[in-house]
Known about the structure:
Layout lengths: L2 H20 L9 H17 L8 H15 L1 H9 L9 H28 L9 H14 L8 H32 L1 H14 L15 H14 L8 E2 L4 E3 L2 E3 L4 E2 L3 H5 L42 H18 E4 L11 E3 L3 E3 L5 E4 L2
Antiparallel strand pairs: 1-4, 2-3, 5-8, 6-7
Amino acid sequence: MGKVSLELKIKEEISILLVAIKATNGEPFDLQPLITTSVCNVICNIMWGNRFDHDDEQFKILMKALNDEFANFVSTGLLNFLPWLRHIPPFRKLMQDTIRNERLIFEVLKKNRDLHVENFDADNIRDFTDAYHNEIQIEKQKGRETTFKDDELLYVVWDLFMAGTETTSTTMRWAMLFMLKHQDVCRKVQAEIDDIIGRGRLPNMADANKMPFTEATIMEIQRLGNIVPLGAIHATSEEVQFRGYTIPANTAVMSNVTAITMDPAFFSNPDKFCPERFLDENGHVIKNEALMPFSVGRRVCLGESLAKMELFLFFTSILQNFDVKLPDGVMEPSFEGIFGVTWMPKPYRIRICARE
Ligand code: HEM
């Protein structure tokens, strides 16, 4: 799927999201289910070429199971290191729930794969699942051994759902909290949107490089939101010498991303929310290599460009149309977080009101 058609799919989701937000009539609500559904639908579109209505039964099963998997991730992750814990409450129940959820999710994934295989037409590749299945057929015809396998496809799709849904949704929820707290920044972003895009059409990716303040704001949200504070766990495949240390083969390695994003040597006053740190004196964006929300190296986030597209389009489309406000009686947004798959804000309620 090319960048242009991907952008169209994202904008289709955004249009539906904006209608759903408008229907809240400026009353306090939790943005999480709406935004997660939207970004999950983007992945569905890439994988299966379709989207689901928010109240579709199959989609509800997938979303609930995905949410439970995310919520239990830290505890189930512990079982990787201490597997015997699975026999002891409360881990026993957690393990049973995880197995049940995985079965439910794989049923949905299998159903969609089988539908694709039934209607497969090599001359009309509709989406990722078709493209993958096509690869299996090509390798089969050539009689070659391949890692492209029907069952492997289910795990690839599952990985993309896991990696691509909660991350983007969580970043957007931090984004809204930062805008609640820093209304001055929010107004500057809105002024840039009005100037470059206006109110008559949805934002496009072509607008992004004309909007340095917005780009810098998203960078600062990603720096302070810091949603993957310890990166992903990797393992050394052989012995490694690193800065005078010897790391043996098969050692689990984690990267302390927080130590970098909060290091005054890279970011002055690191606790301060300050988009201007990413702008030079002419208002142009400064790239800072110490900002690495998608990690670096060979295992860098596979979805980085999709995620950047989603963040820009969701963020600007919401602020183009709405102001963000605290519920009556709430003086300050809470920046307390929960450590699940990612570092995510505690559930909060927000008022998103049509702009004057
Ligand atoms: C704001 C959103 C996102 C953030 C902050 C983010 C961040 C990350 C980080 C830090 C990693 C670990 C890299 C490493 O192992 O060193 C990662 C891996 C990955 N991400 Fe993302 N991600 C985001 C969105 C997405 C999206 C939308 C997709 C695609 C659908 C995606 C797919 C993946 C995949 C497949 C990996 C594993 C790559 C590998 O192991 O080789 N991510 N991401």
